[in-house]
């Protein structure tokens, strides 16, 4: 979702639309020399349909279902926690321009874009990173992996580089148009 192509669906509905599209795309890709669980499961299922290891299909079906559900829960929690951070900053009077999410990585990532001068403001840095640390702890406790969440300057932001780094989901706060 680009800033210039803002969808009429916002927030949770927009993220869920993205998540559905991402799952279809992700299952076809090889990331860090590993295939997505759905690709591996499909290979196992093909083996089962060819008569190999009959009786274990139920096990694989349950594994795929639980892994897919966990991925969805994890992705939704990244979105929720990112919104909690954005709301926290806004509640304290700070402007947030956008946020970007990468759920393609084993440790999901989120970046919150603010005006560059805020990153030099000690009060802002202390307030924001205290909250981000708290949110990271919550995520780690829930999923036993880390959420890499941080701040980035919106000034001269290279959206193409973010896309290349798999920050495929973004929301622009207040429909900012440059």
Quick structural summary:
The chain is 52% helix and 14% strand. It has helices at 11-26, 37-49, 57-91, 122-143, 159-164; strands at 30-31, 34-35, 98-102, 109-114, 148-153, 169-172. The chain is elongated.
Could you describe the 3D structure shown?
- By secondary structure, the chain is α+β, with helices and mostly antiparallel strands.
- The protein has one domain (9-172).
- 52% of the residues lie in helices and 14% in strands.
- It has five helices and six strands; from the N terminus they run H-E-E-H-H-E-E-H-E-H-E.
- The chain has helices at residues 11-26, 37-49, 57-91, 122-143, 159-164, and strands spanning 30-31, 34-35, 98-102, 109-114, 148-153, 169-172.
- The chain has a four-stranded mixed β-sheet with strand order 5-4-3-6, with helices on one face. A two-stranded antiparallel ribbon has the order 1-2.
- Strand 3 (98-102) and strand 4 (109-114) form a beta hairpin.
- The longest helix is centred in the middle third of the chain and has 35 residues, at 57-91.
- It is elongated.
- The two termini are 16 Å apart.
- Residues 1-8 have low confidence and may be disordered.
Low-confidence stretches: 1-8
Determine the fraction of residues in helical runs and give it as a percent range: 40-55%
Order of strands side by side in the largest beta sheet?
Answer: 5-4-3-6
H/I helix tally? 5
Portion in strands: 5-15%
Radius of gyration: 19 Å
Task: Output mean pLDDT.
Answer: 80
From the spread of the alpha carbons, the general shape counts as elongated
Largest sheet, strands/sense/barrel: 4 strands, mixed
Overall structural domain count: 1
> Secondary-structure element order, as H and E?
HEEHHEEHEHE
> Quick one: how many beta strands?
6
Distance between the termini: 16 Å
Structural class: alpha+beta
